[in-house]
Amino acid sequence: MAIDPSYPSWLRELHSPPNPKSKSASSIQDPPGFSSAVTGKRAALAKQQSRKPPTAEETDILKIKKSWEVALAPAKQLPMNAIMMYMSGNSLQVFSIMMVFMLFKTPLQGLLQTNQVFVKYETPRTKSKMWAVKAVYVLMNLMALGLGIWKVNGMGLLP
Fold first, then answer.
1. Is the distance from CB of 138 to CB of 75 less than 8 angstroms?
2. Distance of CA 57 to the CA centre of its chain
3. What string of H, E and C letters represents the secondary structure of the chain?
4. Nearest Cα to 131, choosing from 114, 112, 106, 107?
5. Distance from CA of residue 141 to its chain's centroid?
6. CA–CA gap between residue 59 and residue 65 (Å, rounded)
7. Rounded to whole angstroms, how far apart are CA atoms 79 and 29?
8. How far apart are CA 131 and CA 67, in angstroms?
9. For the stretch 77-114, what's the b/e string if a residue is b when 16 or more beta carbons lie within 10 angstroms of its beta carbon?
10. Could you read off the pLDDT tens digit of each residue along the chain, which spans 159 residues?
């Protein structure tokens, strides 16, 4: 397909194959620290097609670690919730009532869904260790509920 010479040069270059690289471009040396040859580490990685799958014991250890992270998550929210409750004040306003509602709602949902939260981390081998994780999770949610009770008492809603 011949391109009319009256077309702009960029259009002619677009439809023509690229020019082969000149010898002067290939004579440019690589920058210091760069090697175009495959190094020993890269060759070893290329030989290794896939890594071995983790053993069942390693998977169980990872599941226990992840379950501890989930169990301690409510404790990480306690300082933020305490600051928010302090800043919302003790007067009965829409904002402070919504904050107290959310402070009660989240731990109650966590307590009701304790088994569903940890079901994906339970295996026959980890079942004996999960009771401690669940106990810590329940304790952390009860601490959040205690913070809510403290706030409601501060607002004067408890007798």
1. no
2. 24
3. CCCCCCCCHHHHHHHCCCCCCCHHHHCCCCCCCCCCCCCHHHHHHHHCCCCCCCCHHHHHHHHHHHHHHHHHHHHHHHHHHHHHHHHHCCCCCHHHHHHHHHHHHHHHHHHHCHHHHHHHHCCCCCHHHHHHHHHHHHHHHHHHHHHHHHHHHHCCCCC
4. 114
5. 22
6. 10
7. 58
8. 11
9. beeebeebbeebeeeeeeebeebbeebbebbeebeeeb
10. 567 888 888 888 887 777 666 666 567 777 888 776 655 666 666 666 567 888 889 999 999 999 999 999 999 999 999 999 999 888 888 988 999 999 999 999 999 999 999 999 998 888 888 999 999 999 999 999 999 999 999 988 888
In which residue are the tokens 């919730």 written? 81
**Tokens of residue 76, six digits:** 């990480």
| Structure tokens that stand for 68 in this block | 């501890």
Position of tokens 């690589």? Answer: 30
Q: Which two tokens stand for residue 80?
A: 């933020």
